Amino acid sequence: MKLSNRITGMVGAAGGGWELFFKARAMADAGEPVVELTIGEHDIRTDPVILAAMDRAARGGHTGYAMMAGTDALRDAVAERVQARTGVETTRANVLITPGGQSALFAAHHATCDEGDRALFIDPYYATYPGTIRAVGAQPVPVAAHAEDAFQPRAADLAAAAPGAKSLLVNSPNNPTGAVYSRATLDGIAQVCRDHDLWLISDEVYDTQVWDGTHLSPRALPGMDARTLVVGSMSKSHAMTGSRIGWLVGPQEAIGYLANLAIHTTYGVPGFIQEAALFALEQGPGLEREIAAPFARRRAIALDILGRQNAIRALPPQGAMYMMLDIRATGMSGIGFAEHLLETHRIAVMPGESFGQAPAGHIRVALTVEDARFAEAFQTLVDTAGALAA
C-alpha cells in the first residue's frame, strides 16, 4: 500500500537534521559517557512545586476531558501575561491552549496556508519548521539571514520572496542563533507583512531568556495584531518540556476556527497539566528568572573561553539557550566537526547544517549541562577546533 505524499515527504530530501542527535543518544543509551549539548532540554527538571500542583489536580479529579480550547482560567492567565508583556489588549478569546509550542506552530500554519501555498521562514531555522509547513500541504520557502548581519533578516530579502506567499514565520529570541531581533528588524518584517498581506507567525517561546537587548513581540507593532499569531510555551520558561503545554495567541476569529482544529486533532490538553501550568504562571517572573539563570551563567563561561582563542568565531548570543559557533577555520563542515567531536571526545553538538544553508560551517551548542561539566566540555571543543585550525 502506498502512503500519502504528504507524510512520506514531510521532512524533505535532506532529512530533518536529527541524525547526529540520534547517534549521540544511542551511544548514551549504550552506556557511553556522552556530554549532550544538542537539544534545548534543561538539565534541571520541572520544579517540584509545579509537580505537586499537577499531582493535586490529577488526584482532585482533573483527569477527564478538558475544554478543547483550554480552560477558562488558564486562557485568562495567558491573556493577562501576554497583555502585561506587550501592551496589546488580550482576552481569553485570543488564546488557544495547545500541547506545546510545536502543536501551536502546526495549528498556525493550518490557519494561514492552503494546499500548495508558499510559506516563508528564516534560515537559520529550528529544525522542525520546514516539515511543519509541509505537513499542512504548504511549500516551505527559506529566506537567509547572514552572520555578517548578526543573523538579523533583511527586509529587502523578505520583500523579494514575499509575492504570492501567505505567511512568514519568525523566531526571536532565535533558535539556533541566539539573535534577538531589533526594533528596526521587526519594523521591516512588519512592513513586508503589511505590504504583501502576509500572516506573521511569531515563535516567542524563548521570551524569558534575553541576555542582551529587549524582546519585542511584533504583535505590538502598528497594524500587526490583526495579522499575527504568537506561539508561546511553558517548555523553556518553566522547564516543563515533557508536560507539552503551550499556546497560540491571535485574532479572535482565527482562534475560534483553531478551536475547531483542536477538536479534530488533539482534543485538548489534559486538565491536570493545565492546572499545573496555571499554578506555574501564578508564581510570577521570579520563577522564570530562576529557570533562565543557568543559561546566562553558561553563556558567560563560554564567552570567557572564546575570548582566549582565535580558531572559533562567534556572535555573543543575545537570548535563548544556545550559541552558534563558526568553525570554518578548521577546514571542516559543521557536520564533519560535530562527527569528529563526538567520535573523539564524546561531546555531542548539532551541526549548523541541521538548521539550513545559512549556518553551514557552524555548530550549535546547547547550554544545557551543569556549569563545571559544561566548562570542561566547551574548553575541549575549543581546543579541538584550535588543533584542527593550526
Model description:
The chain has 390 residues and is of the alpha/beta class. It folds into two domains: 5-45 and 286-389, Aspartate Aminotransferase, domain 1, CATH 3.90.1150.10; 48-283, Aspartate Aminotransferase, domain 2 (3-Layer(aba) Sandwich). It is built from 14 helices and twelve strands. The protein has a seven-stranded mixed beta sheet, sandwiched between helices. A five-stranded mixed beta sheet has the order 1-11-12-10-9, with helices on both faces. Helix 8 links the parallel strand 5 and strand 6. Helix 4 (72-86) runs parallel beside helix 11 (271-282). It is globular, with a radius of gyration of 21 Å. The mean pLDDT is 96. Its cofactor is pyridoxal 5'-phosphate. Its EC number is 2.6.1.-. Residues 34-379 form the Aminotransferase class I/classII large domain. InterPro entries: Aminotransferase_I/II_large, AspAT/PAT-like, NHTrfase_class1_PyrdxlP-BS, PyrdxlP-dep_Trfase, PyrdxlP-dep_Trfase_major, PyrdxlP-dep_Trfase_small.
The largest sheet is:
7 strands, mixed
How much is the average pLDDT? 96
Secondary structure category: alpha/beta
- Detail the poorly predicted runs: none
Query: What is the C-alpha radius of gyration, as a whole number of Å?
Result: 21 Å
Number of domains: 2
What is the CATH topology assignment of the largest domain?
Answer: Aspartate Aminotransferase, domain 2
CATH level 1 class label of the largest domain:
Alpha Beta
What is the general shape? globular
Q: Please give the share of residues in helix.
A: 40-55%
CA-to-CA gap between the ends? Answer: 55 Å
Annotation, overall tally of beta strands: 12
Order of helices and strands: HHEHHEHEHEHEHEEHEHHHEEHEEH
CATH superfamily of the largest domain: Type I PLP-dependent aspartate aminotransferase-like (Major domain)
CATH architecture of the largest domain: 3-Layer(aba) Sandwich
| Tally of DSSP helical segments | 14
- Strand coverage percent: 5-15%
What's the arrangement of strands in the largest beta sheet? Answer: 2-8-7-6-5-3-4
Family: Belongs to the class-I pyridoxal-phosphate-dependent aminotransferase family.
Domain Aminotransferase class I/classII large: 34-379
EC number: 2.6.1.-
GO molecular function, one term: L-aspartate:2-oxoglutarate aminotransferase activity
